[in-house]
Task: inverse folding
């Protein structure tokens, strides 16, 4: 008989009870505050129904930071458990759930929303557009991500979290070894957020290809937008593989099929291949936008144009294509044979070439420039040594016979954390500090930011360099404890000290944000261009008005805004009263939110194998889609007078 | 073990691990050719071109192309990847062959169970759990399967790991070139008891190995069919065990049972062992 689960509250552990209590208290506090200040209407009108890319970007950013907190707590719990040999702070079962949710959250619910936040906040402004190509779909993307994340997070409270690692390999995740709703939570959460990601990929490709301001050819586009284009191309080709892998695994688990089980002709190796055909491009999805951020930050803070624009574009495209040719390096030891391993080894080394070229381009952007070091630049400069070492260990891992000794050891863990944190997170923090004033109208305070950076940066190296050594000492990953006498104890303790330091760094980033909000009047960005930067978004006030550009500018060259400033012609970019016309804007809608709630219900149904609930959820999805398809009026006009008033109030007319 | 000897990967005790360590060292040297100049350049550039009022370094805000520089930093990485690639391909193909052509190999069948390792010696008729004894200076062909989720068989001082998969017979050549006791552990997560899937490889001179085999046959209990079934079904760790015999064909049956009946390649491997 196929398993059938009742959702039971996870019990038996004081840590879980404590977490449940704090979740409950925070939820009650939020409801109380919203009710007391009568903000439910505001919440619905301004945030839950918005289709404005600028607000959606902010929503992604907030969600990512919250998830970074949750994933970071997971990390600290693990590091505490591993700080000494034979500790029993966490039992094996708990530890296994924690490393699974840590990895899943960090990649799918921190890195992805961070890059989507940047795309949303920046791309339409950089290309001179008023929104993305499909604003309604954009909102769906966010809420699907949100409810996918919510689904994974509540596994902690009811039913139990997945515990088979963030890759969730078969046959471990087949019913024979891992029955229970935990793994189903993983599958459904990722399927739901995956739909959102694919929609974002489509949305941004069309936006970038079709909605650039007149005169902005592809080769006049800012490089961050190029990175968004490349990453979006990778998204639309990679995510279907994940959908298939998880879909087939779900069918195995709920319907007793044998795609990846060992018996009846199944093949677990197929899961590994399908998963990693997505999984490898996925890590390029999250790093390409980080490269894009640096391509904006380095020129801005060197007072100099980016070195090698064309090479940067070529290397973005090369990385996009080659990233699909590497997946088997995640399982060199699965016995594919020397020919296959050799191919993937060579390809994995080769992709380091266009990547390395970018590092040199950034350094020679600073060369013969005038380098300033406010916070965005600190994160960008900090990225370089970190990512270069991470990339170097990547080339080492690509040498397949060497990988036979590194695979699934702490050497591997150190490598991927170095490229994911030193690469993606540093890049995204640089972007967050850089575009914060554009989003909110005030800067993040420097001194606290600097302290946060140094805590994080030093903490990072102290956490992960010992782990390279631990790998060479034979310590494998995903073990909840280890014996004394292997020589691993002091390095593990050192790594834990580093992790705590990084945790402090995170807290100071949060404090940086809170402090800056409280002191925003002193930190206000009055010009719209606090950094004296180069691209179009800096020609707008901070925060940008609802409709972005009163008049879409015409572009004649790269870095148009910078060139305009150079020749003292900034008034040319200001709208003339006669030029302003009515602007057509999309309507807000509550349907994306409700659509995603319906998918959440579908997900819950599959998790506990209640098919009545699944049908109910799909009925909701269908009903909402039908309702949308009947809609005749899409959008509203902002009258030209209103825009003129707004522009006068902003001091631009 | 003390100090440096705890770096198992850097202290190979056999030719396979030595080949792998050699490639690791080559790769470190090659990547340092990039890493060190980048660090030095970064430190230099961020200082020299800092935006100070009295900085006299040249400021050329439009300078953004240089054929010479592009040739250097495309050319050197291509050369590095080329060199490393040649070494990598060579070693990848070399490692599928036995480490030593002269001596006749010993075959040991490895089964990953939840959560212990079972070793069967088809040539000697004995079986062990969580300890595998081998003769020094003789290539050992490990034939690896799993009656558990996908695991990995890893003895860092003797060589890199190979996955243990249900329904499959994976082959791994290892050899110890000196007597000793070598640490091993599972290399891929298999569930709750995975952290305790350590085992040991004990390498002895050939004569001592033969004596050890005779001792096990004389004085250890037999692994019966029901004993084997119990080993498989009990979901826990197990101490080191020695068996004077094991049910004939149990390794092959395990593979077939776990889906190996569909895998021509694996069937041919286990049939060739007969």
Result:
């Amino acid at each position: 008989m196929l398993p059938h689960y009742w959702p039971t509250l996870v019990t038996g552990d004081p840590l879980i009870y404590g977490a449940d209590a704090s979740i409950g208290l925070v939820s009650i506090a939020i409801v109380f505050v919203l009710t007391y200040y009568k903000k439910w209407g505001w919440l619905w009108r301004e945030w839950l129904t918005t289709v404005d890319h600028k607000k959606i970007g902010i929503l992604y950013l907030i969600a990512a930071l919250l998830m970074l907190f949750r994933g970071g707590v997971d990390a600290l719990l693990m590091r505490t458990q591993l700080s000494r040999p034979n500790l029993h702070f966490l039992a094996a079962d708990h530890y296994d759930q924690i490393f699974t949710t840590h990895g899943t959250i960090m990649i799918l619910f921190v890195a992805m929303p961070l890059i989507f936040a940047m795309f949303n906040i920046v791309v339409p402004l950089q290309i001179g557009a008023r929104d993305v190509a499909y604003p309604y779909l954009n909102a769906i993307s966010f809420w699907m991500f949100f409810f996918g994340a919510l689904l994974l997070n509540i596994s902690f409270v009811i039913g139990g979290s997945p515990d088979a690692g963030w890759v969730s390999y078969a046959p471990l995740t087949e019913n024979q070894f891992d029955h229970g709703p935990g793994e189903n939570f993983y599958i459904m959460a990722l399927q739901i957020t995956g739909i959102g990601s694919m929609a974002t990929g489509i949305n941004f490709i069309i936006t970038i290809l079709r909605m650039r301001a007149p005169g902005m050819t592809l080769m006049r586009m800012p490089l961050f937008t190029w990175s968004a284009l490349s990453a979006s191309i990778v998204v639309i080709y990679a995510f279907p593989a994940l959908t298939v892998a998880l879909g087939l695994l779900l069918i195995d688990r709920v319907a007793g099929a044998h795609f990846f089980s060992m018996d009846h002709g199944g093949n677990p190796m197929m899961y590994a291949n399908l998963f990693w055909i997505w999984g490898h491009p996925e890590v390029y999805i999250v790093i390409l936008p980080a490269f894009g951020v640096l391509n904006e930050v380095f020129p801005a803070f060197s007072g100099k144009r980016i070195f090698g624009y064309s090479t940067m574009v070529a290397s973005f495209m090369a990385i996009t294509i080659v990233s699909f040719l590497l997946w088997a390096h995640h399982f060199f030891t699965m016995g594919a044979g020397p020919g296959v391993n050799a191919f993937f080894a060579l390809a994995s080394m080769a992709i380091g070439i266009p990547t390395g070229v970018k590092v040199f381009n950034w350094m020679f952007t600073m060369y013969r420039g005038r380098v300033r070091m406010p916070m965005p630049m600190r994160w960008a400069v900090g990225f370089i040594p970190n990512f270069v070492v991470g990339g170097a260990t990547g080339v080492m891992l690509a040498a397949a016979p060497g990988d036979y000794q590194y695979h699934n050891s702490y050497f591997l863990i150190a490598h991927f954390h170095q490229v994911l944190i030193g690469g993606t997170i540093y890049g995204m923090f640089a972007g967050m500090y850089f575009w914060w004033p554009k989003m909110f109208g005030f800067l993040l305070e420097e001194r606290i930011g600097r302290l946060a950076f140094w805590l994080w940066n030093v903490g990072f190296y102290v956490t992960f360099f010992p782990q390279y050594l631990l790998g060479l000492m034979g310590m494998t990953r995903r073990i909840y404890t280890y014996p004394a006498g292997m020589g691993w104890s002091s390095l593990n303790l050192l790594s834990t000290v580093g992790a705590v330091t990084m945790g402090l760094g995170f807290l100071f980033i949060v404090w940086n944000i809170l402090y800056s909000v409280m002191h925003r009047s002193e930190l206000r960005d009055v010009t719209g261009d606090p950094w004296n930067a180069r691209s179009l978004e800096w020609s707008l006030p901070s925060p940008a008005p609802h409709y972005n550009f009163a008049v879409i500018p015409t572009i004649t060259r790269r870095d148009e805004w910078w060139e305009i400033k150079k020749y003292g012609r900034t008034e040319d970019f200001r709208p003339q009263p006669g030029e302003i016309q009515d602007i057509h804007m999309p309507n807000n809608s509550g349907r994306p939110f409700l659509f995603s709630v319906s998918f959440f219900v579908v997900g819950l149904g599959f998790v506990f194998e209640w098919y009545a609930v699944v049908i109910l959820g799909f009925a909701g999805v269908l009903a909402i889609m039908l309702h949308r398809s009947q809609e005749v009026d899409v959008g509203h006009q902002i009258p030209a007078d209103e825009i003129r008033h707004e522009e006068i109030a902003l001091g631009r007319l | 073990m003390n100090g440096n000897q705890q770096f198992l990967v850097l202290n190979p005790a056999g030719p396979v691990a030595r080949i792998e360590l050699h490639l690791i060292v080559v790769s470190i040297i090659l990547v340092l050719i990039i890493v060190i100049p980048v660090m030095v350049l970064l430190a230099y550039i961020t200082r020299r071109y800092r935006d100070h009022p009295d900085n006299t370094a040249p400021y050329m805000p439009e300078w953004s192309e240089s054929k010479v520089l592009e040739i250097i930093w495309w050319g050197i990485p291509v050369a590095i990847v080329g060199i490393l690639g040649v070494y990598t391909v060579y070693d990848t193909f070399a490692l599928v062959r036995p480490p030593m052509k002269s001596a006749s190999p010993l075959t040991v069948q490895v089964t990953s169970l939840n959560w212990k390792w079972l070793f069967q010696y088809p040539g000697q008729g004995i079986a062990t759990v969580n300890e595998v004894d081998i003769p020094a200076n003789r290539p050992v062909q490990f034939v690896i399967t799993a009656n558990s989720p996908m695991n990995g068989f890893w003895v860092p001082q003797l060589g890199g790991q190979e996955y243990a998969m249900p329904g499959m017979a994976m082959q791994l050549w290892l050899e110890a070139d000196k007597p000793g006791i070598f640490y091993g552990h599972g290399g891929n997560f298999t569930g709750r008891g995975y952290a305790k899937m350590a085992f040991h490889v004990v390498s002895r001179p050939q004569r001592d190995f033969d004596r050890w085999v005779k001792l096990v046959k004389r004085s250890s209990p037999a692994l019966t069919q029901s004993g084997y079934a119990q080993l498989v079904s009990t979901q826990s760790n197990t101490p080191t065990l020695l068996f004077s015999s094991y049910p004939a064909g149990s390794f092959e049956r395990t593979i077939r049972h776990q889906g190996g009946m569909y895998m021509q390649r694996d069937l041919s491997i286990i049939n060739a062992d007969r």
